[in-house]
Amino acid sequence: MRLNLKLKKGFTLVEMLISILVFVIFLTATSGSYLSLARSIYNANQERKVYSAAQDIINLITLEVKKGVVDYDCYEAEAILKMRIDAGLVNDNAANLSERILFQSPSSVNSGVDMFCANNRLRGDRDLVIRSKDGNSRFIVIFEPQSDGVSGKIKIARQVKTEKLGEWKFGESFDRQNYAEVEVPDNIRIKDLKFKVSPGKNPFRYTDVVKFQFQPQVTVLLEMGASLTGRDDYSLPIQTTISSRVYNKLATL
User: Fold this and answer.
1) In degrees rounded to 5, what are phi and psi of residue 65?
2) pTM over 0.90
3) Domain span including residue 234
């Protein structure tokens, strides 16, 4: 009997090295594509979060402006108080206006001037005060830039009017500092927030000399941002103008 034996050939060392080299090249190419895809997905999610957070803030402010009125009395409180003191309508023995406001002496409080607004000295384009249609409550938005110079915090509060003339108190739904911070997702920054109230003075106070009344409106300039992977930081500026839906609002002072 003759035995027919066949030897099975295997891979040589050179063939195995070539196979490993081809596999490494393939793995490097695919991993680079995967990492690029992962970065793109992460960056797209970050941009979506920025837009969503910005839209939520704009919607919050829009709702309050539409259903309320610009509280011109609050913006003009410090100037009105000074005018009344200079005219002798407020009898106060304090050395200067800042002390009158700081200590809120009884004569100043009884002057009918909004002492909260006079005391806090609103920063114009950084603060917004909207009063409700019935005039008994108001919504306050403030923007506080942080020390890093590239981000800030938006804080809101609600106040209700008391029976005492010119006095307001905070609602009980907020913390001890009276303001609640607007929360945004992690790694999302509020870079800037400004308000432009137009017209600059109460258009309903001087009805006898102003024939054409301007309906108050608020222009909101909001800028949000986020850090991206493999790209420059993302920045989303948004500007919108909102008109109050409350008409024929008479001056309260």
Assistant:
1) -65, -40
2) no
3) 44-243
Could you tell me whether strands 217-226 and 168-170 are parallel, antiparallel, or unpaired per DSSP bridges? unpaired
Could you count the other beta carbons within 10 Å of the beta carbon of residue 159? Answer: 22
**Phi, psi for residue 229 in degrees, rounded to 5:** -95, 125
Question: Cβ neighbours of residue 241 under 8 Å, at least 6 residues apart?
Answer: 217, 218, 219, 220
Residue 77 domain-assigned?
A: yes
Beta bridge partners of 170: 159
Phi, psi (5° rounding) for residue 200?
-70, -25
**Residue 81 DSSP SS3:** helix
Q: Is residue 11 part of a domain?
A: no
Q: What is the pLDDT of residues 71-127, one digit of tens each?
A: 888 877 766 666 666 665 555 554 444 444 433 433 444 445 666 776 665 666 888
Coil vs helix vs strand at 197? strand
Could you tell me the maximum CA-CA distance found in the chain, to the nearest angstrom?
Answer: 135
For residue 131, give the nearest of 64, 195, 75 by alpha carbon.
64
Q: Which of 40, 179, 60 is nearest to 120 (CA)?
A: 179
| Alpha carbon distance 119, 124 (integer Å) | 14
Complete DSSP assignment for 97-114: HHHHHHHT-HHHHTTT--
Smallest Cα–Cα separation from 195: which of 121, 127, 123?
A: 127
Domain tally for the chain? 1
- DSSP H helices, 121-209, are none
